[in-house]
Amino acid sequence: MFEVIVQAILVLMVLLLTILYFYLRRQYDYWKDRGIPYEKPTFLVGNLGRLLRISMFDFMLNLTKKHKTDYFGIFLGWKPVLVINSRKLAKKVLVKDFEHFQNRYSFPGHADDPLGALNLFTVKNPMWGTMRNELAPMFTSSRLKKLAELMNINSGELVRRIQADYIDNNKPVDMKELFSMYTSDTVAYTVFGLRVSVLKDLTSPLWFITQHMVRWTFWRGFEFSMIFFVPAVAAIMKLKFFSEPATNYVKKLFWDVVEERKKTNNPSNQDLLHLMLQLKENLKLPVGSDKELADNLMLAQAAVFILGSIETSSTTLSYCLHELAYHPQVQEKLYKEVSEAMEQTGKDILEFNDLLELRYLTACVKETLRKFPTLAFLDRVCNRTYQLTDDVTIEKGTPVYINVHAIQRNEKYYPEPEEWKPERFVDSSTDNDNHDFTFLPFGEGPRFCIGKRYGMLQVRAAIAQMVMKYRFEPKDPYNVETDPYSVILGPKGGGKIKFVLR
Ligand code: HEM
Predict the structure, then answer these.
(1) Coil, strand, or helix at residue 81?
(2) Fewest Cβ atoms nearer than 10 Å: which of 116, 138, 436, 440?
């Protein structure tokens, strides 16, 4: 009897594996059947095999070098994904026909990870639309003006920390960590209204939450890769956007600050926490939803602002200083621009409007974001059958990736694209200029980065103060390796330069 059962199980397994084998073989003909060029998949993992060994940045760069057509297909696991290289088609997906591409493909999270499921980056429409409208006031010019003051205070701390650690004590430089401390101190205030400073070596509750986000381990890389690229596996494995300790800590911090404010009767109206509490009062939640949903919605936005602002800005600062170190003439021109602005305004520290006027500084930051976009792809999922071109129909449920490298490193728009040349952007009008859809480091369309102006501001404020005090000299080889485990770009080992007192 036992033998019969074992035999039956074996037969069933062989049958299932055979069905799976033929299903996948059929699936892997998806792009071939539609006459669309594609990257040859490996059985079961599709084109993911390489992605788990190299960074997303390098993965997209390698594909860009290989596929010069307007679009091509890849397979994430067994899922066919359309990659778009053309700026015109990118504009259709991100802007003109946004109603068919409202959501991201990445895993929307689950009940055990409310902060992962309900934040603005992951949340799906219609909830996304409501949240986006409510959060927009967080980034008005008057609010940013106020935040610029704090960014300037923290930039001052950054300059002092460089002196203490790298000049006086000759410690090895880790730019990613250093700039993450700076952005962490700023976000502590933006989100929780807390004036803390890990840069000053003081205990910062925010640094406790964020320092593990800065270091990419194999496991975190795997978790994020599944969340972004194979949502089905993320769902089965119940993977989380935010770890349990980070979730608990954000919750505790949030409610501690609320309690403290009640006790001291101090209704600060500058930070996200204040806006969230107002939002909670007014939010129209789906019928039947409980108080916990409203609480989790607030906490999720706090968490994604922390993650969104620290990783991206610290990476941009690291790569910008690395390039400046290798381009001493650009560095001197930048120094001249900042020192002349200080002379003209008579200020030691440049304020919000002064920083916006620094065109060459802005050009250096934009050129860094062109060559090193922190997210090399913008993902959307098609919500109904859609005619992209005469030849290409996208089926409902198909993920579409906009290949940012293919656009930002296209020699038609940027001759010698491997060269770092801020001159390309000196005539750039505003932070919102997408250069005829050839500049997409913050994404585009209704789902573009909500923190774009905040991010640009905190990067400008830090560079303006650092360049006045130090010269940057190279330490790493020019072509820095990227962190292989990171979905968001980061230099392997954090990135090193030499700071020399002016
Ligand atoms: C240099 C700095 C930054 C860069 C390069 C950057 C880049 C991006 C990119 C590429 C996207 C995806 C856009 C799309 O799919 O079209 C995005 C979305 C987002 N970013 Fe940023 N970001 C930066 C700073 C920030 C900051 C400072 C915050 C928060 C304070 C933030 C919060 C977000 C959020 C919440 C989203 C999701 C928006 C939505 O889906 O509606 N980012 N960012």
Answers:
(1) strand
(2) 436
CA 398-116-259 angle, to 5 degrees, is 155
Ligand 1 atom nearest the C-alpha of 369 is 5
Range of the domain at 214: 34-501
CA of residue 309 to ligand 1 center, whole Å: 8
- Return the exposure string of 198-211: e unless at least 16 CB atoms fall within 10 Å of the residue's CB, then b: bbeeeebbbbebbb
The pLDDT value recorded for residue 206 is 80
Q: How far is CA 43 from the centre of its chain?
A: 30
- CATH code, domain carrying 402: 1.10.630.10
Which of 165-169, 185-189, 222-226, 259-263 is predicted with the least confidence, judged by mean pLDDT? 259-263
Query: What's the average model confidence in pLDDT over 126-130?
Result: 88
The pair of three-digit structure tokens given for residue 398, joined into one six-digit string: 């198909």
Measured from CB, residues less than 6 Å from any atom of ligand 1 are 120-121, 132, 304-305, 308-309, 312-313, 316, 369, 374-375, 378, 441-444, 447-451, 454-455, 459
Whether residue 203 is contained in a domain is answered as: yes
pLDDT at 286 over 80: no
For residue 328, cis peptide bond before it (omega within 30 degrees of 0): no
Say which amino acid occupies 256. D
